[in-house]
Design a protein that fits this description.
243 residues; mainly alpha; 0% strand; single chain; 72% helix
Length: 243
């Protein structure tokens, strides 16, 4: 990877998702705030830039046989993957987690009042993610696929009602930021998903599921914010230069 002054955190993770573990180690948000450069984030968080780059380069220098190279995928395939993998995950896990969190609040809330805030935060996230994904599935993703099909057929694209693809993407990115912040609070309230000593099996399973949900959300947001959205904006720019 050719590291330049403007290389962003998102560029690293788009190139090799294994670098996400390094950023997580330093508590650097690689999904919602992936547009920052290494220099910017190191200065803000007082991290030794040389040490961080050495760790990142060590990962990039090793052969990666297991991680999927999403950055090389056609955009229509990436969209289908996001919908069938990550959107489906959210839809499947959300009602289960709400059921478990409600139960914990009823049974264990008196001894662990933080559960009420965790429950409220997760329900807030669930309430925002559902329409967020529908807007992608019904508005943004179809337009991106329209551009892809026009590229394949050497055709043209119609003027979308939202003006430019940058507008819905900006809205989606803002919503990504909100969910990233919400889950940072959940992680803090759960002591990074560590159950208390008196936790029952339901307590432990719920925290494990919450952590799994956050990890999936991070990858979900990464695929959109760091790969799909920048390429969609570049694709639209290609059509505007043809006119």
């Amino acid at each position: 990877m050719n590291i330049q002054e403007k290389t962003t955190i998102g560029d690293f993770v788009a190139q090799d998702f294994r670098t996400a573990a390094i950023f997580s180690k330093y508590e650097i948000d690689f999904c919602c705030k992936g547009q920052r450069t290494i220099e910017e984030v190191c200065a803000k968080k007082d991290i030794n830039e040389a040490n961080l780059l050495n760790e990142l380069n060590a990962v990039l220098a090793t052969k990666n046989d297991s991680e999927i190279d999403f950055n090389s995928w056609p955009l229509d395939l990436l969209i289908d993957y996001i919908e069938k993998t990550h959107h489906s995950f959210v839809e499947e896990k959300t009602p289960i987690l709400i059921q478990f969190l409600d139960k914990l609040c009823n049974v264990r809330g008196s001894n662990h009042p933080e559960l009420f805030e965790i429950n409220e935060l997760f329900k807030g996230s669930a309430g925002e993610l559902a329409p967020h994904m529908k807007k992608e599935e019904l508005i943004l993703f179809p337009f991106i696929k329209e551009m892809i099909n026009a590229t394949k057929s050497h055709g043209s694209i119609g003027q979308p009602h939202f003006g430019t693809v940058k507008n819905p993407i900006t809205a989606m990115m803002n919503e990504h930021d909100a969910e990233g912040e919400r889950f940072r609070t959940i992680a803090s309230l759960t002591n990074n998903y560590t159950p208390p000593e008196d936790a029952c099996n339901t307590y432990r399973v719920t925290f494990t599921m919450l952590e799994e949900f956050e990890k999936d959300l991070h990858k979900h947001i990464h695929l959109e914010s760091n790969i799909l959205f920048p390429k969609a904006k570049a694709l639209e720019k290609f059509f505007s230069t043809e006119e």
